[in-house]
Each structure stands twice: as C-alpha cells, then as structure tokens.
Amino acid sequence: MRVEVPSMAMGDIAFNLLIFFVILARAQDDSHLNWQPAQAEELQSVANSKVSVVIDADEKIYVNGQQLGVSQLSGRIANLLGDAPAGDRTVLLKVHNQSKALTFEPVIEAVSEAGGDLFHVVEKENSR
User: Fold this and answer.
1) Which of 119, 125, 112, 97 is nearest to 45 (CA)?
2) pLDDT tens digits, residue range 82-113?
3) Residue 78's pLDDT is what?
4) Residue pLDDT, tens place only, 43-54
5) Coil, strand, or helix at residue 110?
6) 104 CB contacts (<8 Å, ≥6 apart)?
7) Strand-strand pairing, 51-55 and 61-63
8) What does the alpha-carbon distance between residue 55 and residue 18 come to, in Å, rounded to a whole number?
9) Sign (positive or negative) of CA dihedral 73, 120, 22, 60
C-alpha cells in the first residue's frame, strides 16, 4: 500500500504558511524600546519613513527594532533606503531625552553618510 499527499492540498498548505509568516513579520516594531522624547515648541509632522533609529534609556542603538553598533549603522540604513529618490529617504531619529551627544552625534553622521533625510522625533512642549 502506497500513501501520497494529495496535490490539491499543496495550495492550501502554501496559502496557510504565507498567512502565518505575514502575521509574524514585523517591519518596524520598536514599541518594546524604552525611550523618552525630547520636547520642543514648534513641530512639523513627517510622512512615511522607511527607517526608524532609536537610542533608548541605556543608550543602545536600534534600527527598525534591531540592535546595532555605530559601525554598522551607515551600511544598514543605506540598504534599507535602497534606491529611493530624494524626498522618500526619511529616517526617523528617536533619542532618549537623557542621551549624551557622544551617543547620538555618530548616529546623525551615519544617517548623513547613508543619504537619509533625518527627522528628530520629539514631543510638543507643554506651555503653562
């Protein structure tokens, strides 16, 4: 007796696997990172971004939720931006409000080297 998998079921199996991986995929999930934004008076909103860089309370650097070292930033950002035209190369920079310049200045330099348009994410200052 010979047992075979029906070929009609292969399409259903492939479809279910596709749905499974799409649900598990996380492109820019940095919600688990602990950071407090700086505050400013005049703010402008930004359209969509391809890259999000976060410097958390422990001064660790994350690109789209993945921890990286400073030396890896420029290459990783350039890869994520790809061949996007000017104006579509937005990089959001979220810096914890207690971070030192020694930490965030190399990040700004790496974004510049990668050709990204840097936008610093801050909160509106509460005026009393």
Assistant:
1) 119
2) 888 877 888 888 888 888 888 889 998 999 99
3) 92
4) 556 667 788 888
5) helix
6) 55, 93, 95
7) antiparallel
8) 33
9) positive
